[in-house]
Amino acid sequence: MHTQPLRGRCPIRAEVAQSPQGPRAPSGHRRWTGHRRQRPPRPRRRHSGSGCAAGAGGRDLTARPLPGPPRRVWQLPVGGGGGRGGGGGGGVRRAGSGMQPAQLGRAPRHLLVCERGHARHPRSRHAAHVRDHAYSCRVSFLIPECGLLPEVLKSTIADIGDYYLVRSLPIHELVAHEFIDAFVKKGSCYALTYKTKIDQDNTAALLPNGKLILSVDKDTYEELGLQGRPSRYSGKKVMRYIITIDLTDAGFHPESKKHNRVLWALKEKKPLEFDFLMAWYNTGAEGSTLMSYFSKHQIQALRPKITFSTLRDLPCPVLQSNDLQGKPEESCSTEELFEWLGAVLNQVSLDNKSSSFLSTYCCPEPNTVVEKAFLCTITGFIIPEKIIQLLEQLCCYFGEPKLAYWLTLTVHGFADSPVSWRESEHGFHKGGENLYNFVIFRNLDYWLQMAVGAHDDCPP
Amino acid sequence: MLGSTSMMLHHTSGISRKQPSFPPLMGYSAVALNHVIDFKEKKQEIIKPVPPSELFPSLPIVQGTSKRIKVLTRLTLVVSDPSHCNLLRSTSANIRLYDIIAVFPKTEKLFHIACTTLDVDLVCINVTEKLPFYFRRPPVNMAIDRGIYFELLYTPAIKDSTMRRYTISNAISLMQICKGKNIVISSAAERPLELRGPYDVANLGLLFGLSEGEAKAAVSTNCRATMLHGETRKSACGVVYTVKKPRKVEEEETAVPACKKAKTQA
């Protein structure tokens, strides 16, 4: 196994304790307060090759079991096991012994955080994790041993709601107080620039908590005149800056200096204009809709694309809900499940035929062959509130006795969004994946796997 | 604009209209069209570059964004004798019309001259044959200080396996001296099939000994720096730009002599 499970303090979190966003409110780590104790200083082992995003050289990889059952497992790639990074280059073969072979064989840094809990537990954080991940472009769920979707799920999917695409919207419209009072302060408003690449162009995003995040390149930052901080994934020569504007701040009222400065910068100094994907979840308050507010711009309402398919004779891994690591002959581990699920969702054939040149991947052992499985994929700009409703309905699926032992719900985030979870910065190195996956068992235990790519902070 | 830049596409006189569609489809946001001048052949004149607007009436949009691709012109001088460098020192009008100027030194002395004194943006490294000289630290460090970038090609590596070996070995010997700084990886593609996507080229940089960040910068940040370096050649010390202001055409009947004009304006 090329990854080493680490139980203990999250090494990435330890390195980024002084994050530029300021001290974080205690989050999922309050679970660990009983386990923290003064440890003697350990010799730091130097971790060669590509380090984590914070750039620190030493990472403590000594696994030390904590008292009590471990609930979270971080997977860090330690070395060897290449594959993802070195594929391109027009078929050029690896160089000879003059190179450092360890560097070539290493894939770009990626993290997989696995967590387990019970959906009906009062302190379960599954809804909180979903809400923290603001922008999702694809939701898919897989139910083994299911031929037809129950009516309740069908109506939940049909209820996903529309999202809007506004073309050529100047950004100062999002800072206007009419917009803030009508949409940002009432309910949750989500906006993300469309067709902008996070590592090349300027990008903007509006989070539901009222923060407008602008990720701009060096030239734009120097011309814009607003204060921001350099991007964490920018290297020595800073090429990217992040500007955060809190629209719901008490000091941001119409006559304040802050508001005037922001408006002047975005309207007159350097007018920025983007195509936005927008969605608004209002908590019952009646008022204007996005469609009527932006009627002067080119706005169109789009419906998420939904596809259903039934997979036949699918080998599914056997899982034990209380065992994240898996036992060799009894159940599969979370990483094996994650890889298998990725293969199934990408329609990779799992039979390892000798004539196939594309993939030699097989379903992990032990597995059972399932006669039919239902796969549904929803693509569009999907907001977390709808995903929570879908998750609830999937938990209720096991209300009646069913053949399936587990089902999965996978949510992919946008590769080009400036934030991944909460306000932690997201970058695109060679792949901008930030996704999470729920595995819900019959007894309503769940596994939550959160995966990020190279230029990303550890998920909460 | 900081996008992936493909620094070289060989310009052939019979350039087809379809060719500009491939780089933007792969994700490049800027492309440089190259003209090669080789002094070994008979006396060659530096011709005026054809402006991109004449070649491609409407530039295609880069895939995945909503911006148009930027097309630049570039000149490569293949020098094998110190007298060939005189062209760069003289302020020839045609040379100033090119956005980027690159030099391809064939001997160690010329490499030293190119790194230390010549007013160029790129120094090309030979990848098609064994290097006739070894790189030494002083000229390479001087070039890095002056903001000159070293260019490696990858298309010869696609065409032939012998050239692949030379490409990698020359690149590695350069990396050992310059430690991965100031590298630009470009194609010398004459056909669309020889182009590769920007992320693939960044992966190829890993084989040359660059780190992940340096390899990605070789296709994006360093190319942007080279373009800015070329732009500063048209300005005074990179600080002052001059732009020709269009002269208003005055009508004949209302022509007022200059002295009277000044009084009325005052």
From TrEMBL, chain A:
<protein>
    <submittedName>
        <fullName>Ribonuclease P/MRP subunit p40</fullName>
    </submittedName>
</protein>
<feature type="region of interest" description="Disordered">
    <location>
        <begin position="1"/>
        <end position="104"/>
    </location>
</feature>
<dbReference type="GO" id="GO:0004526">
    <property type="term" value="F:ribonuclease P activity"/>
</dbReference>
<feature type="compositionally biased region" description="Basic residues">
    <location>
        <begin position="27"/>
        <end position="48"/>
    </location>
</feature>
<dbReference type="GO" id="GO:0000447">
    <property type="term" value="P:endonucleolytic cleavage in ITS1 to separate SSU-rRNA from 5.8S rRNA and LSU-rRNA from tricistronic rRNA transcript (SSU-rRNA, 5.8S rRNA, LSU-rRNA)"/>
</dbReference>
<dbReference type="InterPro" id="IPR013893">
    <property type="entry name" value="RNase_P_Rpp40"/>
</dbReference>
<feature type="compositionally biased region" description="Gly residues">
    <location>
        <begin position="78"/>
        <end position="93"/>
    </location>
</feature>
<dbReference type="GO" id="GO:0001682">
    <property type="term" value="P:tRNA 5'-leader removal"/>
</dbReference>
<dbReference type="GO" id="GO:0000172">
    <property type="term" value="C:ribonuclease MRP complex"/>
</dbReference>
<dbReference type="Pfam" id="PF08584">
    <property type="entry name" value="Ribonuc_P_40"/>
</dbReference>
<dbReference type="GO" id="GO:0000171">
    <property type="term" value="F:ribonuclease MRP activity"/>
</dbReference>
<dbReference type="GO" id="GO:0033204">
    <property type="term" value="F:ribonuclease P RNA binding"/>
</dbReference>
<dbReference type="GO" id="GO:0030681">
    <property type="term" value="C:multimeric ribonuclease P complex"/>
</dbReference>
Automatic annotation (TrEMBL), chain B:
<dbReference type="Pfam" id="PF01876">
    <property type="entry name" value="RNase_P_p30"/>
</dbReference>
<keyword id="KW-0819">tRNA processing</keyword>
<dbReference type="GO" id="GO:0006364">
    <property type="term" value="P:rRNA processing"/>
</dbReference>
<keyword id="KW-0539">Nucleus</keyword>
<dbReference type="GO" id="GO:0005655">
    <property type="term" value="C:nucleolar ribonuclease P complex"/>
</dbReference>
<protein>
    <recommendedName>
        <fullName>Ribonuclease P protein subunit p30</fullName>
    </recommendedName>
</protein>
<comment type="similarity">
    <text>Belongs to the eukaryotic/archaeal RNase P protein component 3 family.</text>
</comment>
<dbReference type="InterPro" id="IPR016195">
    <property type="entry name" value="Pol/histidinol_Pase-like"/>
</dbReference>
<keyword id="KW-0597">Phosphoprotein</keyword>
<dbReference type="GO" id="GO:0003723">
    <property type="term" value="F:RNA binding"/>
</dbReference>
<dbReference type="GO" id="GO:0008033">
    <property type="term" value="P:tRNA processing"/>
</dbReference>
<dbReference type="InterPro" id="IPR002738">
    <property type="entry name" value="RNase_P_p30"/>
</dbReference>
<comment type="function">
    <text>Component of ribonuclease P, a ribonucleoprotein complex that generates mature tRNA molecules by cleaving their 5'-ends. Also a component of the MRP ribonuclease complex, which cleaves pre-rRNA sequences.</text>
</comment>
<comment type="subunit">
    <text>Component of nuclear RNase P and RNase MRP ribonucleoproteins. RNase P consists of a catalytic RNA moiety and about 10 protein subunits; POP1, POP4, POP5, POP7, RPP14, RPP21, RPP25, RPP30, RPP38 and RPP40. Within the RNase P complex, POP1, POP7 and RPP25 form the 'finger' subcomplex, POP5, RPP14, RPP40 and homodimeric RPP30 form the 'palm' subcomplex, and RPP21, POP4 and RPP38 form the 'wrist' subcomplex. All subunits of the RNase P complex interact with the catalytic RNA. Several subunits of RNase P are also part of the RNase MRP complex.</text>
</comment>
<keyword id="KW-0007">Acetylation</keyword>
<keyword id="KW-0698">rRNA processing</keyword>
